[in-house]
Amino acid sequence: MPSGRSFCVSGQQHGRGVPRHENAGSAVPRYQVIRDALEASIRSGRVPQGLVIIEKPVADIFGTSRAPVRRALKELHDQGLLQRFEGRGYLAGTSASAEPIRQRLDARVLGLETDTRITVDSRALADRIQDDVQQVLATAMAFGQFRVQAIELATHYGVSRTVAREVLMRLRDRRIVGKDSSGHWVVGPLTARAMREDYEIRRVLEPVALRGSAPKLGDDELRAMQRRLDQAMNGSAEPSVSLLREIERDLHERCLRFHDNDRMRGIIRHSQLPLVVNNVFYMVVGRAKESPALAEHACVIAHLLRKDAGAAALSLESHLEAAAERTRQRLKALSVFPEPQLPDYLLRVT
Questions:
Q1: Does the keyword DNA-binding apply (predicted)?
Q2: Which domain holds residue 144?
Q3: How does pLDDT run across 108-151, given as a tens digit for each residue?
């Protein structure tokens, strides 16, 4: 390996992706999942007429709070599929005169046992919604400044205000959101200066962290990273946004995690705004398989598999230099695209 900076360059210039738009925060609201599942069970007759349905057992089955269940049951009542009666809860079916059937509610009793769409999510509520909220806010910040209405956010996801605030606090730690002088939660705008400053930090610190972490990275893990890169570069279809995110995490998070300087890793972790631009760019514009960034990632992983941490660190530095210019151009390009559809809990400020 010659001395000096290690450049790994391969492939031709990638073509432009076909412009496409995806609505931010496209996950189906939990109340709608619950409503649709129960509606199907009632209409199919899997739920007996007169079965007493109350909020808490349904919330337990779906692994959610009571708020989305309450909304789902109300909508089913409005459709005439649930009936009010003198007791607590609702009677299943279209007959208000049906004899109440009280029994312990579970997925089998509600006719949900064979519904492959239904999974019980045992994670904390904040964990369940955080990725989706982050995607929405990251998308928004590339198109201006928005106020984040915590109450409306809680309603949108069917969680409590406390859970919504917890998610926003976590995202503030990641520099996705902040508070204005009036104490309102705000997101954006992304600026070229913020991108430049983050890349300056990363170019200095990430190669050092990689040198320190490299000896502890296992070959099996590195080969898994290599397979994801091969899938993105050589697969029959354009790589998905989720795959590209995993590839970014491979190099810029997982490969650095064993460095023993916690403070340095913390600074790197809080200097990831450029990834926001790239993720939004992937969603709005698309990305060709032969993107130079993927080849640059592959070069670093190849050096790590050869146990050459020095060459890997030099290649990572080269990658970050090239990525800084690509990200600057992407941020500029995003300014000419129309704003994607955003949830109602965001209000444009500028």
A1: yes
A2: 125-187
A3: 888 886 554 555 454 567 887 888 898 899 889 888 899 999 99
Residues 204 and 283 occupy one common structural domain: yes
Residue that is last in its domain, among 160, 187, 214: 187
Task: Give whole-number Cα distances, 30 to 35, 50, 91, 170, 216, in Å.
Answer: 9, 25, 22, 22, 41
Q: Which two tokens stand for residue 111?
A: 């006719």
Strands 146-148 and 185-187 come out as antiparallel
Q: Tell me if residue 86 falls in helix, strand or coil.
A: coil
- Lookup result for tokens 């509610």: 105
For residue 190, what pLDDT is reported? Answer: 84
pLDDT at position 173, please?
A: 83
The DSSP line for 206-255 is: HHHHHHHHGGG--HHHHHHHHHHHHHHHHSSSPPPHHHHHHHHHHHHTGG
Q: Convert the pLDDT of each residue in 263-278 to its tens digit.
A: 999 899 888 777 777 7
Determine the pLDDT at residue 287. 58
pLDDT in tens, 17-52: 222 333 444 456 778 889 999 999 999 999 999 999
Shared domain for 169 and 290, answered yes or no, is no
**163/124 Cα distance (integer angstroms):** 9
Q: How far apart are CA 247 and CA 282, in angstroms?
A: 13
Where is pLDDT greater, at 336 or 212?
212
CA dist., res. 211 & res. 159, Å (int): 43
For the cut 60, the answer to whether the pLDDT of residue 1 exceeds it is: no
* Same domain (yes/no): 320, 221: yes
For the whole model, what pTM was predicted? 0.61
CB 252 within 8 A of CB 275: yes
For 122-162, the DSSP string reads -S-HHHHHHHHHHHHHHHHHTT--EEE-HHHHHHHHT--HH
Residues 17/287, Cβ–Cβ less than 8 Å? yes
Residues 6+ apart with CB under 8 A from 5: 314, 317, 318
In a domain, residue 350? The reply is no
